[in-house]
Amino acid sequence: MAEALRVGIAGLGTVGASVARVLSDKAAELTRQCGRPIVVAAVSARDASKDRGVDLSSATWFVDPVKLAEQADIDVFVELIGGDEGPARASVTAALEAGRHVVTANKALLSRHGVALAEIAETKGVLLNYEAAVAGGIPVIKTMREAMAGNSVSRVFGILNGTCNYILTRMEAEGLSFDACLKDAQRLGYAEADPTFDIEGHDTAHKLSILTALAFGTKIAADDIYMEGISNISQADIRAAGELGYRIKLLGVAQRTESGIEQRVHPTMVPTASVIAQVHGVTNAVAIETDILGELLLSGPGAGGNATASAVVGDIADIAKSRPGFQHGPVFGWPAKELKPYKKAQMRSHAGGYFIRLTVHDKIGVFAAIAKRMADNDISLESIVQHSAGADNQKTVILVTHETTEAAVRKATDGITKDGHLTDKPQVIRIERAG
Ligand code: HSE
Fold it and tell me: What is the pLDDT of residues 181-196, one digit of tens each?
């Protein structure tokens, strides 16, 4: 039998401990599949004494993950520390420079430094695998990197954050408050350490930026992503969406347009009958539209220790199966030096349908004034409904537009606000075409 693949794991939190347990519990199966054993030879974590449900006594412990990456007798460095700078960036860089393969689940690191790290990996002839960084256990990286050569992608979109999808699902199904659902997500271990990362869309944006590079062969441009989170989605929005035949999801969308590539993360209304609307709870889904393949939808568990560990272990096993002298494919599906500069489409030119919820003073002429602002901005309305429910002297007006532009909607809602008819800020939610 070939020599064991020696793995060093930096970070033994929920995911790191799950990875160590899976490697131990499934040692016999993995050895048979890979033709060689995989052993955890070194680890780095803050607390060496904590019980993680796996025997790590034969691994060498390092306090400093950079030292582990540089000095440990390992073939693969597994980074599960998190964060786009500090020890995560330093240790991954050190491991690649030392000619070691790297497996990481770190979307923040890749969204900021992925191209530079890919250049090092490709120069050194080692693998940088990151299946767990996007959509947890769904093999979307392998699919886009390895199975879609020759396809021209027009749009990639998905539910990329389990915490947000869990919150929106429970708000809709049980009529619960946003805060109560967030607390449960944290208790169940789905949420990031800082929940604003999940609920304000940063986590989705990091993942989307990686998918954009894979889809369009562009440099990663996470800072260009238009971002809105779900913290201002209310029961009123969820109920109105349901009445109109929509469901609200936090989507990340990257789309090729005439003016460049649009990257956006925001609460989105998708038709209730669409496939993506059936994705509930912590489950993630990614839809990829291409010229040759058509539309592909992948869905599966997107958060939690075991789902993420499954992807990390798959990446480690790929390295165990590769043989010396084998030429590794490029990290982002295209050689890092070939990734093109990114041409950003401005959000104001985004075209689509819009849901607009207005809370207005109950006075004669308000409806007419709203309709006039819409007409003045060339916005064609699909429906306009006034809800009688509301506080004294207030009414809710719900508009659904035909395809228009973000610029027109902003001008119209600014105009309605200036007219003085609103008692609250307008709520605007984009509608996404989905099959
Ligand atoms: N916090 C993430 C989510 C999981 O809720 O999907 C890790 O990316």
Answer: 998 888 887 777 678 9
pLDDT given at position 329: 87
Q: How far is the CA of 302 from the centre of ligand 1 (A)?
A: 7
What sign does the dihedral 231-234-235-238 (CA atoms) show? negative
Answer left, alpha or beta for residue 347, where phi above 0 means left and psi between -120 and 50 means alpha: alpha
H/E stretch holding 112: helix 107-124
From 161, 207, 208, mutation site for ligand 1 pocket: most ligand atoms within 8 A of C-beta: 161
Q: pLDDT tens-digit profile of 402-426?
A: 999 999 999 999 999 999 999 999 9
Q: Token digits for 6?
A: 């020696």
What is the C-alpha separation between 326 and 432, in angstroms, rounded? 43
251 DSSP β-pair partners: 266
What span, in angstroms and rounded, lies between the C-alpha atoms of 148 and 129?
Answer: 17
Expressed in angstroms and rounded, the spacing between residue 225 Cα and the centre of ligand 1 is: 18
Alpha-carbon torsion (21, 9, 215, 98), positive or negative: negative
Quote the distance between the C-alpha of residue 382 and its chain's center: 31
Q: Which residues line ligand 1 (CB under 6 A)?
A: 161-163, 190-192, 198, 203, 302-303
Out of 107, 124, 142, 207, the active site residue is 207
- C-alpha 193/C-alpha 110 separation (Å) is 18
Report the relative pairing of strands 404-405 and 246-257 from DSSP bridges.
unpaired
| Ligand 1 center–CA 303 separation, angstroms | 5
Q: Which two tokens mark 328?
A: 């590794």
* d(CA 161, ligand 1 centre) in Å: 5
Catalytic site includes residue 183: no
Which residue(s) pair with 61 in the sheet?
43
User: Residue 217 carries which side chain, given as an amino acid letter?
Assistant: G
Q: Rounding to the nearest 10 degrees, give the CA dihedral for residues 182, 188, 190, 193.
A: 80
To test the ligand 1 pocket, which listed residue (84, 203, 204) has its Cβ within 8 A of the most ligand atoms? Answer: 203
Contact 79, 102 (CB under 8 A): yes
Give this prediction's pTM: 0.95
Burial per residue of 244-270, b for 16 or more beta-carbon CB atoms within 10 angstroms, e otherwise = bebbbbbbbbbbbeeebbbbbbbbbbb
Q: Name all domains of the chain by residue range, CATH numbers in brackets.
A: 5-137+305-338 (3.40.50.720), 142-301 (3.30.360.10), 349-431 (3.30.70.260)
Atom 7 of ligand 1, residue of closest alpha carbon: 303
